[in-house]
Automatic annotation (TrEMBL):
DNA-dependent RNA polymerase catalyzes the transcription of DNA into RNA using the four ribonucleoside triphosphates as substrates. Specific core component of RNA polymerase III which synthesizes small RNAs, such as 5S rRNA and tRNAs. This is DNA-directed RNA polymerase III subunit RPC3. The keyword Iron does not apply. It comes from the Eukaryota. It holds the Pfam family WHD_POLR3C. Component of the RNA polymerase III (Pol III) complex consisting of 17 subunits. It comes from Zooxanthella nutricula. Keywords: DNA-directed RNA polymerase, Nucleus, Transcription. InterPro entries: POLR3C_WHD (IPR055207), RPC3 (IPR039748), WH-like_DNA-bd_sf (IPR036388). Residues 183-260 form the DNA-directed RNA polymerase III subunit RPC3 winged-helix domain. Belongs to the eukaryotic RPC3/POLR3C RNA polymerase subunit family.
Length: 336
C-alpha cells in the first residue's frame, strides 16, 4: 500500500529533487506515498480468504491465499487487476511462501489434497477459480500422472496437457458483494428478512410473488412476515408491483407482487451504510467530548472518574471498530 517514488533516476511524480553541492547536477531523494489501489486490493484478498475459510475450511483458504499472489494491480494510472494462470508446481511453491505447507506430512497425500481443492474451487460454473488446459512438453519420467493427459506417444519427450489455475476475479468480486448483501440484510431484518430476500432475489429467474406465497415458501407466520416484508419495502430492499383485477375495481382488490430490483437494492444499501457511518461519527464526537476533561487530568482522577474514563475509551474502541466494518462494506460496493 506504500510505494517508492524514485531514487537517483529521472524524477517521477512524488520525487523530491535536490540540487547537488558541486557541478549543478540534480540529485533525487526517494520519497514514499500511499497507494490506495494496492491497499484496496489487499483488503479484497483478506476478505476473500476469510470468506473461504468460513464457508469451506482453513486449507482451502490457504490455497486461495496462494492463488491470490497471482493477482496484481495494473500499471499506474490504469484501473483493474491482472490475473496470472499458475501450474500445479508453481502453486505448491506459493503454498510454501504463504506458510501453508505442513511439514512432516506425506508429500503425495498433500499434493492430492491440494489438487482436489483446486479442482473443487474450479469445477462449478460459478467457482472462485478458473481452469484451463495448456500443451506442454515434459521430460520422460517427470510427469505427474494426476496433472496432465499425454497427447502423443513416441521416443520424443511426451507432450501433455497440463492444467493451469487462476482466480476468477469477476466472480470473486461478485461473491464479496453477495456476502456483504446477505450480512447487511440479516443485520437489519433478521433471519426472516434474509429468507424472504433469498427467495425473491437469488433464484433464477427472479421471482415476483404474492405475500401468501412468500410466507408459505419461507415458513413464516403471516403476522411476523408481513411486518418484515413491509419494512423491507419501506426501506427500498424489496419492491412491489400492482396487478389490477380490472380497471373498474378499487385498488384494494388488486394483486400485489413483491420482487427485488438489484440496482435499486444496491443504492438502498449504500444509503443505509452512509447513514450508519454518519451516525457513528456523530456518536463518536459526542463520546470524545465527554472524556476530554478526564483525559486532560488522568493522573489525578478519583476511582469513579477512572471507571468513567475506561468506559468512555471502551465505547470509543467499539465505535472505531464499527467504522472499519462499515468502511469495508462501503469499499465492496463502490470500488471497481
Amino acid at each position: 500500500a506504500v510505494e517508492q517514488a524514485g531514487a537517483n533516476a529521472a524524477a517521477p511524480a512524488g520525487t523530491v529533487v535536490e540540487a547537488a553541492a558541486e557541478g549543478g547536477f540534480a540529485r533525487c531523494r526517494s520519497v514514499f506515498r500511499f497507494n490506495r489501489q494496492v491497499l484496496t486490493l489487499c483488503v479484497y484478498k483478506s476478505l476473500l480468504c476469510r470468506l473461504v475459510e468460513e464457508r469451506v475450511n482453513t486449507f482451502a483458504s490457504q490455497v486461495v491465499a496462494a492463488m491470490l499472489t497471482g493477482v496484481a494491480p495494473l500499471e499506474r494510472g490504469e484501473r483493474g487487476v491482472s490475473v496470472d494462470f499458475m501450474q500445479f508446481d508453481t502453486i505448491e511453491k506459493k503454498m510454501v511462501d504463504v506458510a501453508a505447507a505442513q511439514e512432516g506430512r506425506d508429500p503425495g497425500r498433500q499434493r492430492e489434497r491440494l489438487r482436489k481443492v483446486l479442482d473443487g474451487l474450479a469445477s462449478q460454473g460459478d467457482g472462485l477459480l478458473k481452469k484451463r488446459l495448456v500443451t506442454s512438453t515434459s521430460a520422460a519420467g517427470s510427469i505427474d500422472p494426476g496433472l496432465g493427459r499425454p497427447a502423443q506417444a513416441g521416443g520424443a519427450p511426451p507432450v501433455v496437457q497440463v492444467p493451469e489455475y487462476a482466480v476468477d476475479w469477476k466472480q470473486a468480486r461478485r461473491l464479496l458483494v453477495q456476502s456483504a448483501t446477505s450480512q447487511l440484510i440479516r443485520d437489519q431484518f433478521g433471519a426472516v428478512g434474509l429468507r424472504i430476500f433469498n427467495l425473491l432475489g437469488e433464484q433464477v429467474p427472479p421471482q415476483r410473488l404474492e405475500e401468501t406465497a412468500i410466507f408459505s415458501a419461507c415458513m413464516v407466520p403471516p403476522t411476523e412476515g408481513r411486518e418484515v416484508l413491509n419494512e423491507m419495502v419501506r426501506r427500498g430492499i424489496v419492491n412491489w408491483q400492482e396487478i389490477p383485477r380490472n380497471s373498474a375495481m378499487p385498488i384494494v382488490t388488486s394483486f400485489w407482487l413483491y420482487y427485488v430490483d438489484h440496482k435499486r437494492l444496491e443504492s438502498a444499501l449504500l444509503l443505509d451504510i452512509l447513514q450508519a457511518v454518519l451516525n457513528l461519527r456523530i456518536r463518536f464526537r459526542v463520546e470524545l467530548r465527554k472524556g476530554v476533561h478526564l483525559e486532560s487530568r488522568q493522573d489525578s482522577l478519583t476511582k469513579r472518574e477512572k471507571v468513567a474514563l475506561n468506559e468512555g475509551r471502551r465505547v470509543e474502541d467499539v465505535l472505531e471498530r464499527s467504522f472499519l466494518v462499515l468502511d469495508v462494506a462501503l469499499l465492496v460496493y463502490t470500488s471497481e
